[in-house]
Amino acid sequence: MDFMTIMGQSTLFRGLPEDELRRLEGIGEPREFDKGDMLFQEGKEGVGFYVVASGQVKVFKMSFDGREQILHILGPGDPVGEVPVFAGMTYPANAQAMGKAGLFFFPRKKLIELYRESPSLAMNMLAVLSRRLREFTVLIENLSLKEIPQRLATYLVHQQSLKPVSARVKLNVTKGVLSNILGTSQETLSRVLGKMSQEGLIEVQGKEISILDMERLKSLAEGGTRL
């Protein structure tokens, strides 16, 4: 795992000068995980956070009846567990490797010392945490207020916005995981995908979805159009 490459592309540290990335490299600890390994568990002390270098990590909560609700699927460059670390709190959810994964671990105590020495690092972190809080607020709204077609449309619009030069969205998770994220069953997800295809909004080919009518898809996401 090349530290400088991963951190240079990370949403958390992108744009930092090389000398500050080198300072981060001095405290980053490379760690390897196998499928099913836990990075941390809900309620445990936030002793540090991770940045994914390879593979995928899911962040999830368990309901009282034992059902798993996935909150995020994170891949290379994404931070994991950063909010409680800097707030001095416990982890609010669980994090688990979805397959073989390589990550860099940043201990809380060493990070606090580094941020005191380099305020620009702290400012960059603040900006990213604000953005992720907005994304989490949207997620909660989708799960509690919107119908399944709206949730799926919102998800597709967001995924396409990450690569605006392309009208294609490549799903980086299985339909089972995606249905969990959207709070529905695989059968319902398949029906909604089929209906969107019939209506000419999208075209589905395996894990690749082509957006055919972005305006109508955005309208559906915002509740202005119904299937």
Task: Outline the structure in words.
- The structure is a single chain.
- The chain contains nine helices and eleven strands.
- By secondary structure, it is an alpha+beta fold.
- The protein folds into two domains: 3-129, Jelly Rolls (Sandwich), CATH 2.60.120.10; 146-221, Winged helix-like DNA-binding domain superfamily/Winged helix DNA-binding domain (Arc Repressor Mutant, subunit A), CATH 1.10.10.10.
- The strands form three sheets. It has a four-stranded antiparallel β-sheet with strand order 1-8-3-6. The protein has a four-stranded antiparallel β-sheet with strand order 2-7-4-5. Strands 9-11-10 form a three-stranded antiparallel β-sheet.
- The longest helix is centred in the middle third of the chain and has 27 residues, at 119-145.
- It starts with a helix and ends in a 6-residue tail after the last helix.
- The mean pLDDT is 86.
**What percentage of amino acids are in beta strands?**
15-25%
Q: If strands are numbered along the chain, what order do they take across the biggest sheet?
A: 1-8-3-6
Largest sheet: 4 strands, antiparallel
How would the global form be characterised?
globular
Domain module count: 2
Q: Tally of extended strands?
A: 11
CATH structural class of the largest domain: Mainly Beta
* CATH homologous superfamily designation of the largest domain: Jelly Rolls
CATH architecture of the largest domain: Sandwich
Q: Structural class of the secondary elements?
A: alpha+beta
End-to-end separation in angstroms reads 45 Å
CATH topology of the largest domain: Jelly Rolls
Continuous helix count: 9
Instruction: Please tell me the overall pLDDT.
Output: 86
What is the gyration radius calculated from CA atoms? Answer: 19 Å
Query: How would you name the oligomeric state of the polypeptide chains in this document?
Result: single chain
| Helix percentage | 40-55%
Order of helices and strands: HHEEEEEEHEEHHHEHHEEH
